[in-house]
């Protein structure tokens, strides 16, 4: 079946061709909106849809053929997978696609497996898998006009499109190399696969165990028992780890002590926490509002504040991810460039509206924004923008105007961090204002703004976050109920955006 999909795509010359990289939520949406008027193929490294929501039992520790896998060869890690029993950070009404409500029996804050089932149901309803190719890795995306004569000859094809895309089997990066052509390429791979590790002096001194939250699975809880666990970083990954360890695990299976090291704002929030009050009083949870300066021995480090953290058994980095696209980086086409600091790829551009490559607008990035409270609606609006551009319903400004718009957006994003790490942060609370960004997408795509949905978010979810997360009570948020305050079986209306 999958070989037939590839053959049909390759031999369809009568329609505009779109190649989508990634079958996660954004790739699913792009496939849904573009399949009607275009020849579409959506390719994924995994054996099924879902992206991070697809639970993969293998990681770098237990994969039987790690060195052969294409993803590991090109990225240096395996693609991320959400761990077992994870709950979403948003209530279910904010995670629905328009016209397709979640099942009533799902939890208010869905478990990962519930949302994965939702994605499967959505794909089945719209018959999307007929356009999808799994177990396939995209290793290169090139502009055909920039290929050398020798490179063109080696493809063994008559090149008539804009992009040449090299693909191969995901299980073996040397196996079954072949080429597809495309008029448009959509990158929907996300940005949560290459872990970010902050620079720490004398890192080689530390002899305890070191992990990134990227690698966490439920069986790691056994590693933590009666140990001193240090978590470096305080955003969502750290919050989830603390919630799982201290609130969802038998206390007899807990670490002896957890030290959380994070910025002052996060630690100040924890210090007023009622949810973790007992653990803080009993010194089971210690808090440090600073950064790590240097390791000083096999099991100890010094903080920028001058404090020492000693007898460390395990250091868990909850320090986020870098943007990485080897299929674009390993060429000289220069369709994007990265903003880097200390070898960390904080963001990339130039992108118009955080979507379209200014240098080649037929290269489109979906789902790169983060911290958004309207996560699926955000990505759905982005997918509609891409579809209406590709279907020539809308046009983009000139390259000069798009570049100017991008530079203004990037400058605004530097108000908190000069290194650009906030460029893709789109939120009701910090970074680019989510409400305004949605309006920009609606204006660009000439679609109606969904005022009803945004009022639910503003009047229900935002106050919920303010009374729980912003007061250090993250675990309490997952127990809240708000679905009874909106229409039954709610999802954004089909005729809006």
TrEMBL record:
Pfam families: FMO-like (PF00743). Gene3D superfamilies: FAD/NAD(P)-binding domain. InterPro entries: FAD/NAD-bd_sf, Flavin_mOase, Flavin_mOase-like, FMO-like. One of its GO terms (molecular function) is NADP binding. Keywords: FAD, Flavoprotein, Monooxygenase, NADP, Oxidoreductase. Belongs to the FMO family. This is Flavin-binding monooxygenase-like protein. It comes from Tetrahymena thermophila (strain SB210).
């Amino acid at each position: 079946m999958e070989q037939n999909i590839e053959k049909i795509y390759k031999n369809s010359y009568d329609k505009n061709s779109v190649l989508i990289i990634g079958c996660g939520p954004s790739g699913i949406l792009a496939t849904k909106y573009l399949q009607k008027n275009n020849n579409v193929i959506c390719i994924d490294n995994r054996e099924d849809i879902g992206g991070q929501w697809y639970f993969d039992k293998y990681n770098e520790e237990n994969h039987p053929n790690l060195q052969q896998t294409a993803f590991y060869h090109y990225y240096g890690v395996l693609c991320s997978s959400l761990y077992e029993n994870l709950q979403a950070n948003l209530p279910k009404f904010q995670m629905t696609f328009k016209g397709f409500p979640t099942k009533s029996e799902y939890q208010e804050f869905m478990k990962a497996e519930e949302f994965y089932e939702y994605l499967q149901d959505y794909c089945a309803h719209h018959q999307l898998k007929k356009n999808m190719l799994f177990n396939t890795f995209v290793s290169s995306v090139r502009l055909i006009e920039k290929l050398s004569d020798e490179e063109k000859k080696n493809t063994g094809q008559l090149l008539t499109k804009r992009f040449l895309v090299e693909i191969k089997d995901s299980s073996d990066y040397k196996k079954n190399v072949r080429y597809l052509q495309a008029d448009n390429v959509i990158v929907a791979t996300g940005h949560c696969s290459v872990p970010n590790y902050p620079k720490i002096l004398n890192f080689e001194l530390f002899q305890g165990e070191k992990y990134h939250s990227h690698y966490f699975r439920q069986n790691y809880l056994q590693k933590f028992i009666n140990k001193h666990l240090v978590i470096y970083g305080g955003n969502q990954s750290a919050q989830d780890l603390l919630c799982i360890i201290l609130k969802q695990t038998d206390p007899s299976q807990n670490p002896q002590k957890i030290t959380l090291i994070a910025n002052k704002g996060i630690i100040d929030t924890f210090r007023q926490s009622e949810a973790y009050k007992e653990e803080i009083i009993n010194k089971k949870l210690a808090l440090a509002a600073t950064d790590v300066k240097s390791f000083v021995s096999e099991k100890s480090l010094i903080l920028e504040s001058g404090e020492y953290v000693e007898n460390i058994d395990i250091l868990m980095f909850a320090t986020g991810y870098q943007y990485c696209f080897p299929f674009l980086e390993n060429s000289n086409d220069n369709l994007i460039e990265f903003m880097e600091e200390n070898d960390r790829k904080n963001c990339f551009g130039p992108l118009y509206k955080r979507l379209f490559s200014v240098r080649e607008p037929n290269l489109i990035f979906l789902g790169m924004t983060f911290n958004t409270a309207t996560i699926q609606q955000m990505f759905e609006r982005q997918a509609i923008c891409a579809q209406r551009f590709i279907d020539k319903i809308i046009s983009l400004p000139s390259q000069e105007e798009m570049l100017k718009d991008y530079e203004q957006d990037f400058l605004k994003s530097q108000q908190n961090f000069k290194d650009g790490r906030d460029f893709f942060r789109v939120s009701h609370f910090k970074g680019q204002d989510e409400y305004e960004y949605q309006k920009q997408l609606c204006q660009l795509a000439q679609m109606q703004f969904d005022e009803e949905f945004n009022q639910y978010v503003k009047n229900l979810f935002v106050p919920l976050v303010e009374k729980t997360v912003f007061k250090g009570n993250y675990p309490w948020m997952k127990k809240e109920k708000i679905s009874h305050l909106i229409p039954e079986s709610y999802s954004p209306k089909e005729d809006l955006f």
